Amino acid sequence: MIDRKLLDALHTYLTDVVAEEKHFSIEEIRGLFYAQMITPGKINALPWVSALFYGAQPNLTQQQITTLNTHITAVQTAYHDLLVANQLAFPFDFEQLDEDLAELAYSWCLGFYTGLAINDIFWFGKKGEQLKGHEKEREAVRNSAHLFYGLATKDFSGFDKQKIKEVKAILMEQGQEPSNDLIAIALFPNVPIAVKSLQTYGILTMHAAQVTKPVTTEKKLGRNEPCFCGSGKKYKKCCG
């Protein structure tokens, strides 16, 4: 579990910089950094910082930037430590979900979706991408990512069409119009398993990318040493 003081410190500083409605809530921050930890290729820090301000990073002084980076680094380090210790886990118990907890979890999902969208090609695929029949794992990952896209935008056109059809049928049987809001509510319980699916895929991808390259050491030949070509001359008077 992340030290709440680190999150509170970052959130408080964001409020010192801009009005509260212009930056992420604590739960959105938690979701964003969770997504960052499971996303490969997160070298460019700018999109992640801008995301904290809903993509519209304000003009900051150098001192403000330095202080903000200090808070961000502290939170990132805490999340990274959890990841390395294999303790990074979805922070809500959906078996105990009440209205207040559901609202917090939904905010977390919005931050999490923002993190996925920063590396959208990895998580959602290229526009018009057609997966082949044997790519079941990637298809499941795309579907999980589109769950969060749907929760954030209420657009479920990219989600499992069969599942959406089933949800709509159930809602209509209950005498309810299958609006996108009701579909989102019906699909919300799938969030924990979707997070697990994305996390597993992201971490496995990161591990696969960490291919150990053979380390070679090359001794620098001194100019007064015998040349490597075997001529018997000094290096400086031969190949050097």
Describe the fold and architecture:
The chain is mostly helical and 240 residues long. It is 58% helix and 0% strand. It is built from ten helices and no strands. It has helices at 4-17, 26-38, 46-51, 62-84, 99-118, 120-124, 136-153, 161-173, 180-187, 191-209. α2 crosses α4, α5 (99-118) crosses α7 and α7 packs across α10. The chain is globular, with a radius of gyration of 25 Å. The N and C termini lie far apart (59 Å). 23% of the residues are buried. The model is unreliable at 212-219 and 227-232 (pLDDT under 50).
Shape: globular
Strand content: under 5%
Number of strands: 0
Helix and strand content put the structural class at mainly alpha
Order of helices and strands: HHHHHHHHHH
Uncertain runs with pLDDT below 50, 5 residues or more?
Answer: 212-219, 227-232
Largest sheet: none
Give the radius of gyration: 25 Å
Termini Cα gap: 59 Å
Give the tags.
240 residues, mainly alpha, globular
Please sum up the structure shown:
This protein is an all-alpha fold and 240 residues long. The protein is built from ten helices and no strands.
Topology:
Elements: H1 4-17, H2 26-38, H3 46-51, H4 62-84, H5 99-118, H6 120-124, H7 136-153, H8 161-173, H9 180-187, H10 191-209
